[in-house]
Amino acid sequence: MTAPTDVFVDRHIGPRASDQQAMLERIGHTSLDSLMQAAVPESIRATSAPTLPAALGEQAALGTLKALASRNNPGVSMIGLGYHPTVTPAVIRRNVLEDPAWYTAYTPYQPEISQGRLEALLNYQTMVADLTGLTTANASLLDEGTAAAEAMTLVRRAARGKDLRPLVLDTRLLPQTLAVVRTRAEALGIELLDVDLGTDDVPADVAGAIVAYPAADGAVTDPSRAIEAVHAAGGLAVVVADPLALVLLRSPGSLGADVVVGSSQRFGVPMFYGGPHAGFMAVRDGLERHLPGRLVGVSVDKDGRPAYRLALQTREQHIRREKATSNICTAQVLLAVTASMYAVYHGAEGLRRIAQHVHTAATTFAAGLVAGGVEVLHETYFDTVVARVPGEADAVVGRARAEGIHLRRVDADHVAVSTSEVTTVPHLQAVWRAFGVAGSHQGPAADALPEALVRDDAILTHPVFAEHRSETQLLRYLRTLSDRDYALDRGMIPLGSCTMKLNATAEMEPISWPGFADLHPFVPAEDAAGMIELVETLESWLAAVTGYAAVSVQPNAGSQGELAGLLAIRAWHRSNGDERRDVCLIPSSAHGTNAASAVMAGMRVVIVKATEIGEVDLDDLRAVCAEHADDLAAIMVTYPSTHGVYEDGITELCDVVHAAGGQVYVDGANLNALLGHAEPGTFGGDVSHLNLHKTFCIPHGGGGPGVGPVAVAEHLVPFLPSHPLHPVAAKRQGIGAISAAPYGSAGILPIPFAYVSMMGAQGLTDATSVAVLSANYVAARLKDAFPVLYTGRSGLVAHECILDVRGITKETGVTVDDVAKRLVDYGFHAPTMSFPVAGTLMVEPTESEDLAELDRFCDAMLAIRAEIDQVAAGEWSEGDNPLVQAPHAARELLDWQHAYPVATGVFPTGSTQDKYFPPVGRIDQAYGDRNLTCSCPPIEAFA
C-alpha cells in the first residue's frame, strides 16, 4: 500500500517496455543501459544518480503544490508598479490558457498549419498599434523591462550603430524597468543620462530618450515636450506606456513618439507573481524592419488568397550573428493571444468601461483622502494615487494588510494605492480606514486626466473587435482558430532542438490556482512564502541534476539565460582584475543566439571551426586559445552538439579553455539528452542556461512562454542576477536585473516543479534514455531513404538526428521545403528545417511519443521518399506533383487542377477519417516581405 497507483513516469514516457525492446533490437542493442553506455562518452558519464526526493504520484504532487499555494497570501493587490489584478474571462481562461490546442503548439514557422494562432497574434498587433497610435507592432516581447531594453538597442540599430551619443532614461519609469535597461546598457557600453522628465528638460545632443507615460508614481504628464526635444537633437523618442491607460489617454504616436513599449498584463493575464506576460513594442513608419522578435504579416497562398505568416521571419541573429543587436528568438505568444482575446471579447466599448472604472475608483479614493485631510501628491493621474503620511507609511500599509489588501510603501512618508479592474467600494473603504479616514463612500470625483491628453480618436475599429460579444460567439471563434492549427493534441511535432514532449495536465493545472496566479511579485516575502519555497526548491533540484552550485530562475527565456550566464562570466573576470578578457569563442555550428548574446554581454566573438563530422575542431580551438591567451573570456558550446551528437572531446575542450584562462559556457538547449546520465557542471562547465520549455515540460505555447534559468559553479554564484525589489534582501545588489520580475516567469514554475516531483531521479534518467532510443530508432528506419548527416563515433545520435535532403534536391529538384509541406498532407508537423545545416531536416521524437506514432512518422517519410522517386523517374512533372503542390487545402477538392489523382494528393495515407486539412495552400513567403502588412486586413480581402 506504500506505492502510488498513479505512477506518472508511465504516463510521460510513450513506448511501453515491449516497444522499447523492439526498438532496441532495431538499432542493435539489448537494453537502455547498453545503448546509453555506447552513446554517452565514458569521460562525462555520471557515476551516481542526482539527489532528488522519491517520485510522487500525480495526486501527491498536486497535494504538495496545493499546500504551497495555501501558504501564499495574494489578498487584494493595490500595489501597482506595472502589475495589476485583472479578470481573465472564464471562456478565455478555459479555452486559451488551459487548452492544449493553444498551449502545446509550436512557433508558427510552418504558417500553413498555424493560421489560427497567427490570426490571434495579428489581432494582438492591431490592438497594440491602435492603442499606441503607431503603424506596426510586433507579436510580443518578454516583459516591459526587456521591451524597454530592446527599444534602447533599436535606437542604436536605427542609427546603423553610428550614433554613440547618450540616451536619456526617465527616472520616473518603473524601478524594474530602470534596472533591466541599466543592466543591458552597462554591458553594451551605452551611456545613460538619468533625468526626471516630469520636471527637467532633455539635455542637448542625445541619441534618444525613454519616457514614462504614466509615471511609476502615477502622475500623468504630457510627454510631447520631451519628444520634441529629442527630435530636435536628431534622436528617437521611446515612450513606455500602460495600454489600459491609453484607452483614455492620447496615444503616444499622436504625440510624436517613435517607439512605444509596455506590458499587456492587465488585459486579462494573471499577475503570476511576475510573469509570464507579453511585453509589446510598436514603431512608426520606417522602423518596422528594425523590430526585434517576431512580426506577423499578411501574404498570399499559391491561389492568391490572404494567408498569415511570420514576416521577416529569419531571425536576425541567424543572419547577422555577432553583428546582431538583439538575441530575442522567442515571444510570449500564449499570453499575447490571451490579451488579444480580452480585447476581442470586450471591444472598444468594454475597454473604455473597464478603464473608466479603474480611473473613477482612483479619483473617488483620492477625493476621500483629501476630504479626510490626507494630502495627495498629484493632480493628474490614471490609476495610482500617492498619499503623504509623514512617518505613518508602515502603519498604513500594515493596517491595510490586516484587511487583506496590499498597498505600496514608497518611503516612510508616502504610500501609493493603485486601483484596478477588480477594485470595489468595499476595497476603497478598507483602505480609507487604513489611512484613518472616515469609511463613507464619497461618490465619484472629477476626472484627473489632463484635459489636453484625453483621447478622442477611435480605437479597435476592425470588425474582429465587434463581432464576438457573447460567450457563445467567442467560444466558437476560439474553436475555429484552434481547429486551423496543428499542435501536440493532434499528433507528433518532431522538431529537432525544440523538444516538443508531453505537457501533462497534472503539471499544467496548478498555474491557474489563485494562490499562484493572483500573487503580485512585490508582496512582502511572508505573503509569498509558498511560492518562494517552490522557487528555491526547484532551483536546488535544477542544481542537483546539472552538477552546478546554484541556479537563478530569473531569466524568462533561453536567450535571457544566455545573457545572464555570460554577464556572470564577465563580472567574475572583472572581479579578478581581468577586464581585458572579453573574447567569447563560438563554434561555427552554434545556435545564432549564442553570438548575439555574447555581443550583448560586451564580448567580442571569435569563431571556432567545426570538423566534417560536426564536432568542434580541437586543433583550431587550441590555436585560437593560444592566440587569445591574454583576452579569452569564455567559450559557448552546446552539448550534445548542435548537430545532435555526443562529442567525445568535450572534456578536452573544457581543459583547453580553462588552461587559457577562459570559462566554459555549456548551452543547455540539449539537456534532454543528458539528464540523469551526465552533468555539465561536473564534466567541465562553469555556467549553463536551461530551457525549462524543452527538458522540463513548460509548454511552448505557440512560441512562448519559456523559462531559461542560469546555473553556475561555486565561483560564479555571487554573479547571478539580482533585482532591486527582490524578496530576499541579499539578492537586491549584484550584477543587475535580467528580467522585470525577481523570479522571472514564476507563474509557470509549478510545471517543472510538478514534473521533477513526479519523475524523480530514475524517471528523469529513463526519460533521457528513451528520448535517445527514439531518435536512434527513427534514424535507423530512415537512414537508407534520407542519409543521417552526423553520428557519434559509436554510430549513434543523441536525442535528435539530421536527415540530409541536399542530395535528393540536387538529383530531383525536390527541396526540404517540399518534404516539410508534404508531411502536412500526411498529418504531421514538419521537423526543423535547414537548421543547423541548410537543406536538412532535424528530427527530435522525444520520449513521450509512443511506438505507433514513431512508426506513423517513419512510414510517412518513407512514403514521401517513394513519391520523390516517382518525380525522379518522370512519372510526375517537376511543376505539378504532390510534393511541390503541398500542402493541399480542402478547397482544392472543389476544382481539382492537378494531373495526379485527388486521393494521391489529399489522402496519401489512404485514410479519410480525422483528416487534418490546412486552411490555406502553400504560402508565398517573398510576397509578404515585399508587401509588408502587419495588422488585420479588411474583411473584403477574404471575399
UniProtKB/TrEMBL annotation:
One MF term in the entry's GO annotations: glycine dehydrogenase (decarboxylating) activity
Statement: the UniProt record of this protein carries the keyword Oxidoreductase: yes
Modified residues (N6-(pyridoxal phosphate)lysine): 694
CC cofactor: pyridoxal 5'-phosphate
Family annotation (SUPFAM superfamilies): PLP-dependent transferases
InterPro entries, per database record: GcvP, GDC-P_C, GDC-P_N, GDC_P, PyrdxlP-dep_Trfase, PyrdxlP-dep_Trfase_major, PyrdxlP-dep_Trfase_small
Keywords: Oxidoreductase, Pyridoxal phosphate
Biological process, per Gene Ontology: glycine decarboxylation via glycine cleavage system
Glycine dehydrogenase C-terminal domain boundaries: 767-888
Enzyme Commission code: 1.4.4.2
Family: Belongs to the GcvP family.
Protein's job: The glycine cleavage system catalyzes the degradation of glycine. The P protein binds the alpha-amino group of glycine through its pyridoxal phosphate cofactor; CO(2) is released and the remaining methylamine moiety is then transferred to the lipoamide cofactor of the H protein.
Protein name: Glycine dehydrogenase (decarboxylating)
Gene source species: Aeromicrobium erythreum
Gene: gcvP
